[in-house]
Amino acid sequence: MIRPVVGKSFDHSGIKPHEKQQDITLYPNPTKGVVYVKSTDFEEDMNYMIMNAYGQCLETGTLHSQELSLAKYPVGIYFIQLSSNNHPVTTRKIIKQ
Description:
The chain is mainly beta. It contains no helices and 7 strands.
């Protein structure tokens, strides 16, 4: 028998609600080489990791400006993870032409 829920809803899954991620945009996408990071609260010294489509780490580092170069990588799909001390990890997909 299915019983209706009255009043407050209760989540039985045990999964915590998704925390708000940083509002980060990487453009242009697709790109020919240089990707710009646009964020409402960009912080200097943001950490980044570039991964290929297989999840292999190609490069890690610290962004000192809002510019990231993919020029040395061949055409393909890449994932860029960005994080800082005050924000959780954010992952964005970039297509390199």
